[in-house]
Amino acid sequence: MGQVFLLMPVLLVAGYLSLGAAMENQRLFNIAVNRVQHLHLLAQKMFNDFEGTLLPDERRQLNKIFLLDFCNSDSIVSPIDKHETQKSSVLKLLHISFRLIESWEYPSQTLTHTMSNNLNQNQMSEKLSDLKVGINLLIKGNQEDVPSLDDNDSQQLLPYGNYYQNLGDNDNVRRNYELLACFKKDMHKVETYLTVAKCRKSLEANCTL
Amino acid sequence: MMWRDTGLTLILSLILSVVAKGARQTPPGKPKVTSCRSPEKETFTCWWEVGSDGGLPTTYSLFYRKENSETLYECPDYKTAGNNTCFFNKNDTSIWVNYNITVVATNALGSNTSDPFDVDVAYIVKPHPPEKLTVAVLEDKDYPFLRVLWEPPRKADTRSGWITLIYEIRVKLEDAEEWEISRLIRPGNILPVFNCPILVHPAGQQKMFNIFSLHSGGFYMVQVRCKPDHGFWSEWSTTRSVKVPDYIHRNRSVWLLMAILSAFIFLILTWIINMNRNSLKQCLLPPVPGPKIKGFDKQLLKNGKSEEVFNALVVNGFPPRSTDYEDLLVEYLEVYVSEEQELALDGKDLQSIGCLKSKSPSDSDSGRGSCDSHTLLMEKCGVMEPKEESSYEEPELQQAQAGNWVSLDRGESWVDSPNTSNGQVNTKPLVFSMLIHGSSNNQYHTSPELPKQHTVPDNVFPTTPYHPNPEYMDCPGKCNQYHLSQSLSAGAHQLQNPNDFNVPCLEGQSEAMGLGLPHSRSMEYVEVQKVNQENQLVLKPLSSHSHGPFQPLLVEAGEDYSKVNGVNKDNVLLLQRKRVMAEASQSCDHQVKEVECKQQQGKTDTHRSVTTQLQESMCPTTSGYVDTASMMLTF
């Protein structure tokens, strides 16, 4: 009996601590989602601006070539539909997001910026670095999961994929188009993953598995 | 034959047309993929439009390739979404994967392939409109507002965060032409991005929005639509209508209240002003104070009891003792008459007198102050005009001590006060300050306040506007005396401002003051004979010879003059009455005559009356003083 009474406050304290931790977790998620949404909007704007500068002929040509695998993040295996995404654990989602952001951290400097975009190249890289740090924090905060094997496998792949392979192309317009399209897509991916992960970790009943 | 030919042609044309019809069979025209849309980012549908079918039954088929493979797949479902559509279900849909879609039209004669259409499902999301829209009117302190509630479309999975929607509401009054669109509403706990609008706290999945500032009694229609972060707007939901009940416009009532209040305040103010009308008049338009003689009762005068009137004027402690005179004589007497002046005074015309004085040899400012200043002199010069009519009355200047007289040349007594607008104001106290025997009551305020001190000068001098008259004497020479005497007198220390010494001359106007001074060039003394109606000192010069109308009363100090005892704190000139009764009476008579003479020259009756009154005041008693201040007030 006495032991039970001793345990009670301990449990309460633990409960409060976990609550605090959960709230902190949510806060970090909120910030991360916020930032990635912003990045996605930026990427979309950049892409649209660039497309606007193209001639109609070029646009048609580029659309046709879009079929090929040219994004540098294609090596990173990521869920491509809702089912897969919901099947993945939060930690896995965080890892994938981390890698995606990392893969763009330096190549983003080569992204062309049209006149309407006020960001310079370094700023984009900084934003990505900041987001990477945030995701890292989240990973550490959610590390209670047992790391699964498939996560380990994917971590060993080169982060930058075939980015450098495609650098040799001289067609700058095509290259820029591809880069911008890939960047936009990856940002959308990360946004979705983080939102799903946040929702799953959320205290509210809105987000359910 | 003709109709046979026509008949043949007809038959031929018919045959040809039949043949042509049968021959118009071509391969189908090129179809075109118009659009693909996904309602929830899990499935999607593509629409295509057909070209010409070539006259033959044509079939359409859709083929697609996914991003990384060359495998050609065919549309899994042609039926679900309707004609000329292809529906991709969840299993066949991959997000962030590029689909390359083509449609092929096939008929018996051939086929035709459309242009390829690339699509990424992540960017073609167009959700269904929001559901369960409800609008209700809620009260908030006489300000009703609309509360709009809705739910996201059923299929969109916002719950798990797979898709995030933002909403937009539009409102319209029934008879208005255009819709009013609200800001974008982003629900959930996400911090606003790019200054996105307010957060809405959902109850469950329900989104909420409040609309304020309604028209009283209006009939509102509300619609809502949604959009994923990166996608297309949904269609507007069904319209919900609501009627706002009538309520008093706060604005109007506030204005009404304010109007009433201001009217009330206005009434009160007017009433207050009306009540204090007189005092307001006093304040805004202060009356020009008349001369005042302390102790002089108007009523008593009216009653005709002169005894009482004059008794009231008696002040003890006057006159000063004769032992003081010597001191004063020594102190105050400073006669400075330059040679030029003496010459001038002896018979030159007035103008030259004034002008000469500017050249008087003297050091810069010894004792004469600015009397001898260039400007002063020039002004005086300019002022001097020979005046024919000489209302050369004999002003009688009451003198306190021998040295303290206002010596006037014939008919010239004026005060130049270039520094003050009201020249009279400035000078008057100065003059009489000299006449005052070191009274500690010399509290008249000089220079800075002179212009304001209407009382003092008014008491002593005429207050009518300054008329430069040729009869008035130029003062510079006299100024010297005044200046020094002032500096010496205890009570006149205030007068050391050189400005004041511009005017230590007796000011007056010929008619007003009655300074009908004889044109003698020598120094003459003036007695204040009376105070006329316009509060002007009627001075009478005193000459050594007592013959003739203009007999100066000055022989010795203190005998025939009213001595100014002092100026009390009310700036009242305290004059002493004549000591010698007999002489006074004589002089009184004398004065009367003189005054009457003056009267004959065209003075108003008031003057006469004034004179008479003055006469009375001055003659009867042997002691006491004449308080010119109070005396003047009565006039």
TrEMBL record, chain A:
<dbReference type="InterPro" id="IPR018116">
    <property type="entry name" value="Somatotropin_CS"/>
</dbReference>
<dbReference type="Pfam" id="PF00103">
    <property type="entry name" value="Hormone_1"/>
</dbReference>
<dbReference type="InterPro" id="IPR034975">
    <property type="entry name" value="Somatotropin"/>
</dbReference>
<dbReference type="GO" id="GO:0046427">
    <property type="term" value="P:positive regulation of receptor signaling pathway via JAK-STAT"/>
</dbReference>
<dbReference type="GO" id="GO:0050996">
    <property type="term" value="P:positive regulation of lipid catabolic process"/>
</dbReference>
<comment type="similarity">
    <text>Belongs to the somatotropin/prolactin family.</text>
</comment>
<dbReference type="GO" id="GO:0005131">
    <property type="term" value="F:growth hormone receptor binding"/>
</dbReference>
<dbReference type="GO" id="GO:0060396">
    <property type="term" value="P:growth hormone receptor signaling pathway"/>
</dbReference>
<dbReference type="GO" id="GO:0031667">
    <property type="term" value="P:response to nutrient levels"/>
</dbReference>
<dbReference type="GO" id="GO:0045927">
    <property type="term" value="P:positive regulation of growth"/>
</dbReference>
<dbReference type="GO" id="GO:0060612">
    <property type="term" value="P:adipose tissue development"/>
</dbReference>
<keyword id="KW-0372">Hormone</keyword>
<keyword id="KW-0964">Secreted</keyword>
<dbReference type="GO" id="GO:0005615">
    <property type="term" value="C:extracellular space"/>
</dbReference>
<dbReference type="InterPro" id="IPR009079">
    <property type="entry name" value="4_helix_cytokine-like_core"/>
</dbReference>
<comment type="function">
    <text>Growth hormone plays an important role in growth control and is involved in the regulation of several anabolic processes. Implicated as an osmoregulatory substance important for seawater adaptation.</text>
</comment>
<keyword id="KW-0732">Signal</keyword>
<keyword id="KW-1015">Disulfide bond</keyword>
<feature type="signal peptide">
    <location>
        <begin position="1"/>
        <end position="22"/>
    </location>
</feature>
<protein>
    <recommendedName>
        <fullName>Growth hormone</fullName>
    </recommendedName>
</protein>
<dbReference type="GO" id="GO:0070186">
    <property type="term" value="F:growth hormone activity"/>
</dbReference>
<dbReference type="InterPro" id="IPR001400">
    <property type="entry name" value="Somatotropin/Prolactin"/>
</dbReference>
From TrEMBL, chain B:
<feature type="domain" description="Fibronectin type-III">
    <location>
        <begin position="129"/>
        <end position="247"/>
    </location>
</feature>
<feature type="transmembrane region" description="Helical">
    <location>
        <begin position="254"/>
        <end position="273"/>
    </location>
</feature>
<dbReference type="InterPro" id="IPR015152">
    <property type="entry name" value="Growth/epo_recpt_lig-bind"/>
</dbReference>
<feature type="domain" description="Fibronectin type-III">
    <location>
        <begin position="27"/>
        <end position="128"/>
    </location>
</feature>
<keyword id="KW-1133">Transmembrane helix</keyword>
<keyword id="KW-0472">Membrane</keyword>
<dbReference type="GO" id="GO:0004896">
    <property type="term" value="F:cytokine receptor activity"/>
</dbReference>
<comment type="similarity">
    <text>Belongs to the type I cytokine receptor family. Type 1 subfamily.</text>
</comment>
<dbReference type="InterPro" id="IPR003961">
    <property type="entry name" value="FN3_dom"/>
</dbReference>
<dbReference type="InterPro" id="IPR013783">
    <property type="entry name" value="Ig-like_fold"/>
</dbReference>
<protein>
    <recommendedName>
        <fullName>Prolactin receptor</fullName>
    </recommendedName>
</protein>
<keyword id="KW-0677">Repeat</keyword>
<feature type="signal peptide">
    <location>
        <begin position="1"/>
        <end position="22"/>
    </location>
</feature>
<keyword id="KW-0812">Transmembrane</keyword>
<comment type="function">
    <text>This is a receptor for the anterior pituitary hormone prolactin.</text>
</comment>
<dbReference type="GO" id="GO:0043235">
    <property type="term" value="C:receptor complex"/>
</dbReference>
<dbReference type="InterPro" id="IPR036116">
    <property type="entry name" value="FN3_sf"/>
</dbReference>
<keyword id="KW-0479">Metal-binding</keyword>
<dbReference type="GO" id="GO:0019955">
    <property type="term" value="F:cytokine binding"/>
</dbReference>
<keyword id="KW-1015">Disulfide bond</keyword>
<keyword id="KW-0675">Receptor</keyword>
<dbReference type="GO" id="GO:0009897">
    <property type="term" value="C:external side of plasma membrane"/>
</dbReference>
